[in-house]
Amino acid sequence: MSAAIVAAAVVSIPAASAGTPRGLLGLLPSCGATSHPFTPWGDGGAYCAFPNLGFESGSTGWKLSGSAPVVAANEPWHVSGPGSHALQLGPGASALSSPLPVSLLDPWLRFFARSAGANGSLHVQVYFRGLTGNLTGLLNFGSFSPAGYSSWKPTQKVLSALALPLLTSTAQVRLTSQARSGSWQVDDVYLDPRIAKLG
User: What's the pLDDT at 141?
Assistant: First the structure.
């Protein structure tokens, strides 16, 4: 079942300074090595991995709040390599990733999720930040219903309908369980910044 997009509005926040031309143009360093983790599902896009994308290093690289333990679980396809852990988000719990470089074009976000008896949705937000870490915008991507995630599956490819705010250099993803009972499990979080389309 596809995600229900609940909001798609960017809140632009003026930067403290004009920044560098490099930041203004969005011509940023590559986010590092890319892979094609979703090819089996008809998505041949090149994705960058968020730091500790599969939670094999515990909570390193993530800021967790509420009941958000790293548990013995894993998406069964092992797209990021051998693994045995995933993040579990209890009612109201959330996880904020480390930042990744992004281009000026719309990023695509995709990961693996499973509802472990959750009776509410998994909400996805992206924070856009400038070269100094200042917030340049906030995008509410949408929510995934537990009805479509009774077992592990890749989320749909979530695409922003708007260009990134100017002066944006990095993006962070926040995942929040809106369930009142049960939990969500999350694994292998990727961003497709579409950097290749700049060339």
Answer: 80
* Of 186, 111, 180, residue with least CA distance to 141: 111
CATH code of the domain containing 134: 2.60.120.260
Query: For the chain, what is the domain count?
Result: 1
Is residue 140 situated within a structural domain?
A: yes
Whether the predicted model's global pTM rises above the 0.85 cut:
no
Backbone angles phi, psi at 198, to 5 degrees: -80, -25
Asked if residue 125 belongs to a domain, the reply is: yes
Render pLDDT for 62-94 as a digit per residue (tens, 0 to 9).
Answer: 999 999 999 999 999 999 999 999 999 999 999
Does residue 192 lie in a domain region? yes
Determine the distance from the C-alpha atom of residue 91 to the mean position of all C-alpha atoms in its chain, rounded to a whole number: 19
Rounded Cα distance, 97 and 116, in Å: 22
- The answer to whether residue 7 sits within a structural domain is no
Burial of 90 (0-12, 13-18, 19+ CB in 10 A): middle
- Answer yes or no: is pLDDT of 29 > 50: no
